[in-house]
Design brief:
Layout lengths: L24 E3 L7 E6 L5 E6 L3 E8 L2 E9 L4 E6 L5 E6 L3 E6 L7 E5 L4 E7 L4 E6 L3 E5 L8 E4 L4 E7 L2 E6 L3 E6 L6 E6 L6 E6 L5 E6 L3 E6 L9 E4 L2 E2 L2 E2 L2 E6 L6 E5 L4 E5 L4 E5 L10 E3 L5 E6 L18 E6 L2 H4 L12
Antiparallel strand pairs: 1-30, 2-3, 3-4, 4-5, 6-7, 7-8, 8-9, 10-11, 11-12, 12-13, 14-15, 15-16, 16-17, 18-19, 19-20, 20-21, 22-23, 24-25, 25-26, 26-27, 28-29, 29-30
């Protein structure tokens, strides 16, 4: 992976607080409320953010800086986003119980292509099937052909959808009640496997292994689980602690595999980003702590950029929400090969 050019030095933070300890480039304009998802185009350096301010914003990354490209609105907070495989179209879903399709290049107005009975909090596009899949608090997973008004199939879930990860033919859904449902998308209407999370707390996020042999699961308990699908590899399953400061335990909010080196990043409500190597059981890098949670993140398609949001994530409830410190930030960080490439140490770092 070629080394990226260094991003421009941002404006120094005020002396009273180090609001940007990693000196990442800030993406402007900032959303006016908490950021709920970030996603990069699979083909170009376009970044999309959804927010609780009802907005979906798109920027183009040029020479390490983000240039605003366009924005659309929902009628309620927007919770999730996804791209088509060719990188031309964005999908966004939220509390208005619908998914909108937004063709970026054509200038066509977004249209509603999916509906649920409760808020839509997860969405993904499956290029191999030319289908959109949406997960909702209405306890269903729905497959959509965007040319038709009705879902191709409605999959009942045991509880509210909390997490979704798709890499054809593997799809994993996490629901309330610590349920994990695995699908082989070659047979999308049948569950391949249902299991309880290896972590005894609510599932917060999921990520499929790049080789599709298993998945990661992150929880509100500050733990990540590594799960292989093949029962003969059960001895390789393990969980490890992370996003803990002293006796304080924080939620693991996002999991993202690096597209080249297949190591992964976690972000947490403790305001920390860490890069990990699951195969060698190592933490590769831990970044300085931010003064607010990091609710979402994403690697660019070539792995040279890492986007993340810093804002209140409501994990401690409304009583801990301080409007004077509620400003939301989206940052763009250059990824250096030494930070994400496995180090293959002989002595493993043991997790427990």
């Amino acid at each position: 992976m070629a080394k990226p050019s260094r991003s421009p030095t941002p404006t120094p933070p005020s002396p009273s607080t180090n609001s940007n300890p990693n000196n990442s480039s800030e993406v402007l304009p900032s959303p006016s409320d908490s950021v709920s998802s970030l996603s990069f185009s699979p083909t170009t350096n376009h970044l999309v953010a959804t927010s609780w301010d009802n907005q979906v914003r798109c920027w183009e990354v040029l020479n390490g800086s983000c240039v605003p490209k366009a924005a659309i609105s929902h009628n309620a907070p927007v919770l999730c986003s996804a791209w088509t495989g060719d990188g031309t179209t964005v999908f966004s879903g939220g509390c208005d119980k619908q998914v909108k399709m937004w063709p970026l290049a054509s200038g066509v107005q977004p249209i509603t292509v999916a509906m649920h009975d409760e808020p839509v909090n997860k969405v993904a596009f499956i290029p191999q099937m030319n289908l959109l899949v949406s997960g909702s608090w209405d306890r269903t997973l729905r497959y959509w052909d965007c040319r038709q008004p009705q879902p191709v199939h409605i999959q009942q879930l045991p509880d509210k959808c909390h997490a979704l990860a798709v890499d054809y033919p593997l799809m994993v859904v996490g629901t309330a009640g610590q349920n994990l449902i695995v699908f082989n998308l070659e047979f999308p209407q049948t569950e391949f496997k249902r299991m309880q999370s290896p972590i005894n707390h609510q599932t917060r996020c999921l990520a499929t292994f790049p080789d599709k042999q298993g998945f990661l699961v992150g929880s509100i308990q500050g733990r990540v689980g590594i799960e292989y699908l093949d029962d003969s590899k059960k001895e390789k399953n393990f969980t490890f602690k992370c996003h803990r400061i002293g006796n304080h335990i924080y939620s693991v909010n996002s999991l993202n595999f690096h597209p080249v080196h297949h190591t992964f990043a976690t972000t947490g409500s403790d305001g920390i980003i860490s890069f990990w190597d699951k195969d060698n059981k190592q933490r590769l890098k831990s970044f300085p702590e931010y003064p607010a949670p990091i609710p979402c993140s994403a690697f660019s398609a070539d792995g040279t950029l890492f986007a993340y949001a810093v804002c209140y994530d409501w994990s401690k409830g409304a009583e801990h929400h301080d409007p004077s410190k509620a400003k939301s930030h989206v940052y763009l960080h250059s990824v250096w090969e030494d930070d994400v490439k496995p180090k293959y140490r002989k002595k493993y770092l043991l997790w427990n």
